[in-house]
Amino acid sequence: MKVASIVPRLLGGLVVLWLVSVLTFALIHLVPGDPAQVFAGDAATPERVEEIRAQLGLDQPLLVQYGTWLGRVLQGDLGVSLFTGEPVVDAVLRAAPATLSITLLALIIAVGIGVPAGVIAGLRQGTWIDRVVSMLATVGIAMPGFWVGMLLVLVFALANPWLPATGYAPLSDGVGTWFEHAILPATALGLATGAELARHARGCVTDVLSRPYIRTARARGCGPFWLIRKHVLRNAAIPVVTVLGLQAGRLLGGSIVIELVAGVQGLGTLTINSILQRDFPILQGYVLFAAAIVVVANLTVDAMYGWLNPKVRTA
Amino acid sequence: MRNGAMRNGAMRNGAMRNGTDPLLEVEGLTIDFDGAVSQPGLVQDVSFTVSRGESVALIGESGCGKTMTAMAVLGLLPAGFRVAAGRIALGGRDLLTCSARELRAIRGRSIGAIFQDPMSSLDPTMRVGDQIAEARRLHLKERRPVALRRARELLDRVGIPNADKRLASYPHELSGGMQQRVMIASAIACDPELVLADEPTTALDVTIQAEILELLRDLRTEQGIAVLLVTHDLGVVADFCDRVVAMYAGAVVERAGVEDIFGAPAHPYTRALLDAIPQSGRPRTVLPVIPGRVPPAGSFPTGCRFEPRCDHGGHDRCRAPQHEAAVADGRYSRCARVADGDLVLAAGVGAR
Amino acid sequence: MTAEATAEPVVDRRPAPSERSPRRKLLRGMIRRPSSLVAIVFVLVLVVLAVLAPWVAPQDPTAQDLAAAFAPYSAEHLLGTDDLGRDVASRLLYAIRIALLAPLISVGVALVLGVPSGLWAGLRRGYVDAVLSRITDALLSLPGLAFALAIVAVVGPGLVNVMVALGIVFMPSVFRVVRGAAMAVAQEPYVDSARAIGCSTHRILWVHILPNVAAPLLVQATILMGVALLAEAGLSFLGLGVQPPESSWGSMLRTAYDNQFEAPLSVLPPGIAVVLTVLAFNVIGDTIRDVMAARWQR
Questions:
Q1: What is the pLDDT of residues B49-75, one digit of tens each?
Q2: Which of A5, A170, A214, A307 is most buried, judged by most C-beta within 10 A?
Q3: Contact A256 C239 (CB under 8 A)
Q4: How many domains does chain C have?
Q5: From the CA of C20, how many Å to the nearest CA of chain B?
């Protein structure tokens, strides 16, 4: 991909992040009533309320507040937790590895199972394999990931002592230990995405197979194997990749509930607690971080798209 | 459905062509559709031959079964369609008894194919050079660099300038005319005996159409490639073809040499097609149009399939099933009235 | 073969397709397919059960009986009892109301926000379109659930709050569908001719644009019903949605999760209820799309 086509995408990503920053900042001011009072809680003394007002700069004009806030954010300062006093960045970075590694494993599972299943179903359109895959995918999309997680824990951890029921082990404990802890939540998380990808991949393959250039290739004497490798997969990969970006957001969102089920102290747990405790700086940190991850994921997808699609590559 | 008269016709057709060497023989080809609704006789009892080096046109409106017939020759009927009866032979070899593997060895090797709308018929993700080289790699087991070298020569051959650079282009970087040249290059990559051209110029500008036809003509004269041209454009036919096979509603209505058919058509449908050609040099009057449309498969009339739209219909003989009958040496018509001498159609292009 | 048809001077236009009302046709297409027929019947049964819950439910869903906590499946308690001895079957039955109403709130909010803005952006284009599209792009690139959580953090937990928040999250997808459809219809020649013969903008909108936007919108809305139910289950599971003593399938799953050592199988009934209902919404949505696609083709 040429540099010229990367720049507008990068700029687009920055615009999105900027809009998210505005939304995130607005969060505090959308709270009904006096934000300082809300943060401090109903039982707080007036002194405490004023202290918080000063701490958050809530006594300044809005635009000034946003400027100061954004300036700090750009320097990597997202403030401190209203509860523990821990810097938000530290809290987010502490919780991020668990969430991200589970999400990434979920993505690998989803792509590794969903895409091949969908491709095979598309190639064998109308056969029993196609029907089974389509049915499983339809059901898979309808299942709440956290419920699947509970069922998996029930079967693989409680009924049979094969895997740990809860908790998370960082990669530094060894890949095997990490995998044992991560596989159940990752499977539960990846299921819906895998099902979605299977459906999409099936549709894309079916569509490609109906294209005139496939007929041309067959008229040239291509056998099934050559046809799939050289023509079908290359063309079907383009639309399949584009939906991966949307799935990044979905996986991050889904991980919030699944972390609770799996007892993982990740970003999801951090966020839920921040909501229940009205710890807005932490929540802001999470929203910004999640948006940044999704923007990066979309940029990666754009790059892959450009690499796969000659029309973009050479345009 | 095959009766004595037609069998007789097919045999005499073979005898008539003595001295020429039949390359493609299609006899009594009948195609059924077995899908949600079963539709027998989508293509019914189609017979024709293409001799080596000859150019034959398959003409008719859309929905007449021309493309279906061409696809049957390639062994690439869409899912649900099936050859129910008849014989297709290439150089004496029966294609209908070939295995899938044997058919693949013939497609792209002995029969090249060119399709309408080159933009969508070329793989958008594959370089032009690789698409031309593909057939050589598959059939001649050439390694990629060797096949690409040959692809370069083929690009020269089909008149694409700057072949070295174009080899690495993607289809969307080329104009429609260039894309069709690439299609032709890929169709002739393995020096086939027969090229099947399905509406090769329909999607192109008029000026480009002429260039592409010129190229096809050169390939015929220089390499002796036979061409089966599927088209609805009679203008193209007059320029390019030796013989014409006209189809209507899944059946062949007339077969004749190109001069014969333009001079004196032997079927009302062919007559009507000729009338619908816009004529240069004549005042622009309203173009005659054949009223009505091709009946959808499954609701063909039991008698003459063209009768409901025919200027000369309504006759008793039109209500009986029509059979292909010889009306002159090497000419066949599926109109009972013409065959009996009851109906004489106006001669000449544009006559009415 | 389409290009061929347009190039031929001899072909007459096909006659206009049969003049049966598209709504009747859609309904027929849906009832003819066994899977969507089952889905439709399932949803209708849910609606009936939701309305009739007080008469159909075997027990009071809130009646506690601590002595009978975690009772197994029996004739008295068809699906057993929960940690407080409440009848699971009755609670499941009453929760249908929330399972149907909660998604309706979200989808309703999404439609109210998304349809006018989508129409405006799609028909007027210009800077309004540019700004709205940018904003919805930004919203779409947020993890949906995180965005909803942020809103919930502002307005506080509670079923209605959560569902309204989800509606805002769904707004971009409705906006996109409506904008795309409106743009496509606006380019059709018949809209130009309607304008040419002096139809008011208002009339063009109601007579020409909306009916054509309705089909893809209906598909999107049905699919969103399922997504909303899944999200409601998740958020109620987290304790942010429905508040006790009310219960939804999601909060019942939370109860089951909290007691998974005592009554491991209690995760099944509410979970299966969610899966079947979402499945029914999705099947209906898919079928509408398929039937519409088949209609558009011919």
A1: 999 888 999 988 877 888 889 999 998
A2: A214
A3: no
A4: 1
A5: 21
